[in-house]
Amino acid sequence: MQDETPPRPAEGASKQRILRAAIREFETYGYAGARVDRIAEAAEANKQLVYRHFGSKEKLYDAVFSHLTAQLRDFGTRASKAGVPYTDWFVPAEGEEPDENMAQTTWTRLLTWEGLAPSTRDTGLLTMLRENYAIQARELRSDPRAQAALTRFPAHLLVALVIAADHLPFATPSVFAALLDKEAATHQDVVDWFEFVKELLSAVGPAPDVAEPPPSPRRHERAKFGSVTSSVT
């Protein structure tokens, strides 16, 4: 029979310290570059305790991924209940510098690593991630700024655009600063960036009702040439 005795307060605190240290480690180095001994040192614990709580590096990574996925879902739920439009979800809170917006910054950087080198094998986590994006698509459909754009493009493509815009200042801050011709981006730079994205989304109007132009002679020649060469044996 499994022991259902709750962990002692000290054990729970050590597990939380390890989880926080792991979040920083995986954010900085990705799964492949992360080291359990560094996580243990940052958490003021030993490697044996890390393995006791999480079992393996892979399971620790999955715990981090699950924690952040659930955290972002909870944020979206609270924002939706508060009536915050979807396109305002990503603007950093007043007084926060980009690197201090921990949940958003960490999440985007972790997703960047995961996109470059997928590491989680937990299909449940990947399902939860897809569900999060489906929730965002639903919220986008009720955002007044997106109504005109939704007449031309499906919600999931517009969500992809917003997510990509979110990654630029948070996952690649040095690139974002370089694009602004600055040494480092400020909080106001990030706010201005998201205001630009919102205005851009609002500016997308319905598709014009214009007949498709006839193919140019050059396009016609290429098509004809292709049909000829394809018949050669």
UniProtKB/TrEMBL annotation:
PROSITE patterns in the cross-refs: HTH_TETR_2
Pfam families associated with the record: TetR_N
DNA-binding region: 35-54
Domain HTH tetR-type: from-to ranges: 12-72
InterPro entries the record matches: Homeodomain-like_sf, HTH-type_TetR-like_transc_reg, HTH_TetR
Keyword annotations of the record: DNA-binding
SUPFAM superfamilies according to UniProt: Homeodomain-like (SSF46689)
Residue segments, region Disordered: 206-233
Name of the protein described by the UniProt record: HTH tetR-type domain-containing protein
Domain of life: Bacteria
Organism field: Frondihabitans sucicola
Organism ancestry: Bacteria, Bacillati, Actinomycetota, Actinomycetes, Micrococcales
